[in-house]
Design a protein that fits this description.
By secondary structure, the chain is of the alpha/beta class. Helix content is 30%, strand content 19%. The N and C termini lie far apart (39 Å).
């Protein structure tokens, strides 16, 4: 069995949009049911549909427990406002595979997704962009009065002074990655 066969690639929409073609490799591929919502260009959608119909890409729902774990990590790093529901499910699917003692690799160009994957100890590969170098924790703040807001704050205007809300790095993290048995559970 080839080395490629032992890899399980978890596909994010940015991989397909960036030109990744699962039909051209012998690796195992998984993705989530809603991935086609973000794969909107005709060429990428055709590649995805062909791969799914030929069972080169298998579709699998992530568990609720892993979705909750990913949401907690995303909230703690300030990434919850930048990750789509689909991004969270892609991460959760990879986390499920890791918990099943498999070796998933997420293919993505999404920096927020990479940041959370890094914290979860899930490797990733990029297509077009260079991947992240460090993990970050983000915060939102008012550029006028400097009031800090949680990442989940959805308004673009400060409730105190009416200034514009921006996102910035709160800190760069080089902490150890959590082992799977230490991931937050709910």
């Amino acid at each position: 069995m080839s080395k490629e066969r032992n890899k399980i690639y978890v596909l994010d929409s940015s991989a397909l949009i960036g030109g990744y073609n699962p039909n051209l490799t012998n690796a195992q591929h998984l993705t989530i049911p809603n991935i086609s919502e973000e794969v909107t260009d005709q060429h990428s959608r055709m590649i995805l549909n062909l791969a799914v119909s030929n069972e080169i890409v298998k579709i699998r729902e992530p568990t609720i427990a892993s979705i909750k774990s990913v949401k907690i990590v995303a909230k703690n790093t300030g990434e919850s406002s930048t990750l789509s529901a689909i991004d969270i499910e892609v991460l959760a699917l990879a986390l499920d595979l890791k918990r099943e003692k498999m070796n998933p690799i997420i293919i993505t160009d999404d920096y927020s997704l990479q940041n959370v994957a890094e914290i979860l100890g899930i490797p990733f590969k990029t297509m077009i962009r260079e991947g992240i170098k460090k993990r970050f924790t983000w915060t939102k703040y008012c550029i006028s009065c400097k009031k800090q807001y949680p990442d989940t704050y959805s308004d673009e205007i400060c409730e105190i002074c009416g200034g514009k809300i921006k996102r910035r790095v709160l800190r760069k993290n080089n902490k150890k990655i959590l082992p799977p048995d230490k991931f937050p559970k709910q």
